[in-house]
Amino acid sequence: MTAIYAYAHEQVAFVAxxxxxxxxxxxxxxxxxxxxxxxxxxxxxxxxAQFLTQLIGVVRPLMGFYPPTDEAFFDAFSELHRKxxxxxxxxxxxxxxxxxxDGTVLVAAAATPTHPARIHKVDFKTGARxxxxxxxxxxxxxxxxxxxxxxxxFLSLQSTQSDSRVPLDRWACLCAxxxxxxxxxVISYPVDALIARPSGVGDRLLVQRRIQSSSSPPxxxxxxxxxxxxxxVSR
Length: 235
What we know:
Blueprint (H helix, E strand, L loop, with lengths): L2 E7 L2 E7 L1 E3 L5 E3 L3 E3 L4 E7 L2 H10 L10 H25 L8 E7 L8 E6 L5 E3 L4 E5 L2 H18 L4 E3 H15 L8 E8 L5 E8 L11 E3 H4 L6
Antiparallel strand pairs: 1-2, 1-10, 2-12, 3-4, 5-6, 6-7, 7-8, 8-9, 11-14, 12-13
Helix pairs in contact: 1-2, 3-4
C-alpha cells in the first residue's frame, strides 16, 4: 500500500511518498518510491512493487540517451514496460497469485518552452499516460481520499502562510499523516520528498530529503512562493 503526491507549476516539479513496503508475509521495510529522470522531471511509483521498481531502475539511466523531458521518459517507459509486465505475470502466476496488482508512475515536470508544467499518470501494464488536471495530484491505496486530503492541506497552507510561501515538504507531511492515520501499519513514515526547481543563480537544483516524522520542520529549499501556485489547484 502506498501514498504518493505530486505538484507541478512553472519551473517547479515535486513528488513525495511514504516509504513503507509490506511483502506477502506482511513484513514491512523502508524503501524509496520517488525518483528523478532529469533536473526538471521527477516521479513517484505506486502499486506493484517488484517489477515496476525494476523497470524504473532500467529506464532512469537511459536519460543519457534521451532528452531530459517527460515526453522522453514516456518514450523510454513505453519501450520497456511490456517485458517487465510480462515478467510480472509469469512470476505471479508461478506463485498462484493473480492478477498482477496495478502499477502507476506519477510524473511531475517543470515547464519547458514547448509545454507548461504538468503531471501525468502512467500505467505500468499498458504504458498509457493520462494528463492530470491542476497543479497537484495523488495516487495510491485510497486515491479519492488522498486527493481530497491533498487539496485540503494544500489550500490550507496556501491561505495561512505569513511569508507568502508554501512549504511543499510540510504539505507532504500533512498528506502523509492523513494517509498513515487511515491505513496504520501499511502506510508509514519516513516520507521521502523530492523537488526540482531553479537554484536562484541561473541553473537548477534537485533536492531530496527523508522526513522522519510529522513534527519535522520544513526546509527552505522546499518552499515555493504563493504567486507560483497560481489558480491551477483543482478542487
